[in-house]
Amino acid sequence: MSETPVIEMTRRQLYDEIWEISVAGVAKKYDLKYSDLLKQMKEADIPIPPSGYWTKLSFGKPVEKLELAGDGDKVISIFGTAQDVHKRKGIKKPPEKEDIKIKSLAAIPLSKPPEVNAVLDVEVVNAEILQELGEPKTITQYGQTYNVYDRETLYMEVWMLPITEVAKKYKVSDVAIHKICKSLNIPTPPIGYWAKVRAGKPVSKQPPLPATENEKQKTGLQTGFTNPHMPVEMPSLDFLEEEDRVVVLAVSNQIQLTDENDKMHAKVITHRQSVLAWDKADKVAQKDWRGNRTDGKKPPLLWGNISMDSLPRVCRILDSLIKAMEPLGCTVTDDLQFVVRGETISISISESQTKIAHVLTKDEQREMLVYQDAQKRGRYAYKPNIRKYDNVYNGKLSFCIDTKKSISDGKSNTLENRLGEILISFYQISETLRLERIAKEEAERKRQQEEARKEERRKRYNAEVEHTNALMNAAEDYDAACKIRAYVDAIEAAGNLDEDKRDWIEWAKNKVDWLDPTVARDDEYFGKRKHEKSASAKELKESFSSWHW
Is 34 left (phi over 0), alpha (psi -120 to 50) or beta? Predict the structure, then answer.
């Protein structure tokens, strides 16, 4: 500290200022370091407000003011750091912000009139309140940290502090706090509220916390608030919304292998039991010389690709992934397919094998002795068909996701250490599958559209054929009617008509009117002629049955 005092005043004056605007407020007013001023208050035996004093005062709760002991008229000097003194001697000093009166916190009831706290900066109040409320309650599950949001506490916090500050306290983004408030039915300050507070302008009245019969606590993953230096482009998960991307990355960074004593996920337990049962039945089938099982059922996912020694390890890996991904909205089917963002992703887990020289079994040794003995005695015998090499599982696992991504054990990096990479790969492949599904759906939509267009054209073509044939058929009837009519007119014009001919002419004209589509007269025997039909369909035929008469 500098030997030059920054301020000089009586103990009573400094005591009054401390209790009026807080230690932080005095430090800010005189450009002093908070820690230096606090130390000098202790040396001068000046009592300061205890922890929680300003929070209680802001909420109108009773507070206790410690009395000043000793000589209040004694003048004391308050020293600052060399940097503070140099700033005062320096040339340029940023203009001080306007004092913001506590009345700007109109939504918060006070036990004292506003003028008593005339120079109390709202940011100082915020800082002390944030410190007073302490760290949020958290729980740890499956290697991940979750915040426990209490409805009443969060309501108090979002109206005492800007949501961005509350978000930093809970180590999440401000978007996450808004979502939690919405789910717990907590009213939040409107846009521009805190800007008005800092400007000392009137603000809207704080609404009361509405009554609710729903849950009053909620848990949420502690993701860490958004780092301003974090690159905007994140190619691995750039297809996700910002908030979802932050959560997924946080989970991938926090995911750990579940403890071997923890109870496994129900679907992992069920699948493990089915694998053990299948393996037992398969051994019985081979012992009875029946070869593989022939009941037609498909073996469970983990059977046949890994050794039974590796089964517990694989189950723990799957258990860890499922428990980490379920809070993200992912699910798992009974046959251990992962459903991520609505896309079903199949997996396969295999264990590599090492080729080693075959060691004879007791039965094989016995067969070889029989064969060798026969050779010595000069008798014929079949040489046993014994393989030279065996392929044995070596414990090196490979985790394949939808045949598109394979992650394997390495020399220094096992699958247990790559759970986060596997989790992110699920999301990457879910996007690939989503795009493939959309492309297939679009192709199918276009195919159906083309089929519909072709079908519509086929129908229109057939209708056109039908209408054209009808036109041609009617025209043929008209042409025949004209010929017959001309023929009848010629007979009538020839004259020398007796009674029979006149009757025939009358009959012929009626038939022509029946045949002519422009007249379309009904006939006593033939009814109405269907001119649009083909000639064969309209052909007149004799009837050899009397049933329809």
Answer: alpha
